[in-house]
Specification:
Blueprint: H1 2-15, E1 19-21, E2 27-32, H2 34-40, E3 47-49, E4 53-59, E5 64-72, E6 78-85, E7 93-95, E8 103-105, E9 110-117, E10 124-135, E11 139-156, E12 160-163, E13 169-177, E14 184-196, E15 200-205, E16 209-216, E17 219-231, E18 236-245, E19 252-262, E20 267-272, E21 274-279, E22 297-300, E23 307-314, E24 318-326, E25 331-339, E26 347-354, E27 361-368, E28 373-380
Length: 382
């Protein structure tokens, strides 16, 4: 029974055209026979086109070679007059194998062609391998070729150190193409980065914008995006995360680049995490921390119990936003206060914030006026 099945399969393979992928991933075999050719050729069409070969992604400056085997599984000779690339993509695809033509392929014989894909521009490529057969019937055997170039780059945060209490600290995010000869412009990206929320409180970025700012399991997760970016083959600054260095439970945090997505699928990013180290203060000196020296604002009492008084010397008019965070970066209290100063005169304003719902502990208070931002330490003692 098994022998009969093998015979039937063999007869089937002889009578029809077969596209077969061989054991090695870079080898492809195309089988020809007279039955299939006579069935598919007519007076109006002398081109046979079949499922093509995709080279996938190849980095610019590199190349990939795939082997194509044309096998005669018929009973008559095939005569190949010539072989060429159609040339729609210049010399991106090329034939590395040379033969004397006409090339006779007898029954059961195969002819091998090495096809190279060597992109020099960042784009998708389409072309065709054209095999001109002159016997037993004239036709063109067309095998579509496709591939895309890629550019690899690396996005990273260098290891950085900062003194606890520093305001407007800048954490750099850098990028560099691995191919130093490539320049690309007009790009957009989306970056997801995380770090210990207790050590670093971000307030903005030097380039682009913060789309999301969340805390999960003690990690602050930022989503940053920007457009109209140009990439070079040299190290460059992608953006900087600007914020306050806080007194957390540890003296360092990993700056984890969770994901970086470019708007072009042929850009393949790699990432490297960095570390942020903090130093200079310890837990029992938290009330001595000066996140921003500014005589325009004071809070008292500190330590506080039920209320705190915010004294602000300003000529602004608008909304005063007050946020109180725990040392682990959790928002504990938020309140907006109106500064009633329509003439924008220099005034000494006093604003009261109730803190009776806050338990004893160490906090940071972030105060944002229309044109300024202040950060100060705060203790609550019950």
């Amino acid at each position: 029974m098994k022998k009969l099945i093998y015979i039937l399969i063999s007869i089937f393979l002889i009578q029809v055209y077969i596209y077969q992928v061989l054991c090695q991933e870079n080898d492809f075999e195309f089988l020809l026979n007279e039955t299939f050719i006579n069935k598919n050729l007519d007076n109006y069409n002398s081109i046979l086109s079949f499922e093509g070969i995709d080279f996938g992604f190849v980095q610019i400056g590199n190349s990939d070679i795939k082997n194509i085997y044309i096998t005669n599984n018929g009973i008559n000779n095939f005569e190949i007059k010539s072989v060429r690339i159609s040339g729609r993509e210049g010399t991106t695809f090329s034939i590395m194998t040379t033969y004397s033509y006409p090339k006779i392929v007898g029954p059961g014989e195969k002819v091998k062609y090495e096809i190279q894909f060597a992109p020099i521009l960042p784009q998708n490529f389409l072309d065709s391998l054209l095999i001109f057969v002159s016997h037993p019937v004239q036709f063109v055997y067309s095998i579509p070729l496709s591939g895309a170039s890629i550019i690899e780059n690396i996005v990273w945060t260098p290891d950085t150190a900062a003194v606890i209490g520093v305001s407007e600290f800048k954490l750099p995010i850098k990028v560099q193409n691995t191919n130093k000869d490539i320049f690309i412009s007009g790009l957009s990206y989306r970056l997801i980065i995380s770090f210990d929320a207790a050590l670093f409180y971000p307030i903005g970025v030097s380039k682009g914008k913060i789309e999301k700012n969340e805390i999960f399991n003690g990690q602050r997760i930022l989503t940053i995006s920007d457009d109209n970016i140009s990439l070079y083959g040299t190290e460059q600054l992608l953006t900087e995360i600007i914020g306050y260095i806080l007194l957390g439970n540890n003296n360092k945090t990993i700056i984890n680049i969770q994901d970086i997505i470019w708007d072009k699928n042929w850009i393949h990013p790699n990432s490297k995490n960095g570390e942020l180290y903090t130093y200079g203060l310890c837990g029992n000196t938290i009330n001595q921390i000066k996140l921003k020296e500014d005589s325009d604002i004071k809070i008292n009492p500190n330590p506080a119990n039920q209320i705190i008084n915010i004294h602000l010397n300003t000529n602004e008019n608008g909304i005063l936003d007050v946020q109180i965070f725990s040392v682990t970066g959790i928002l504990c209290l938020k309140k907006s206060i109106e500064i009633n100063n329509p003439n924008k005169e220099q005034i000494d304003g006093k604003y009261i914030i109730a803190t009776y719902e806050l338990p004893s502990g160490y906090y940071y208070i972030i105060i944002t006026s229309p044109n300024k931002r202040f950060a100060l330490p705060l203790s609550i003692v019950k």
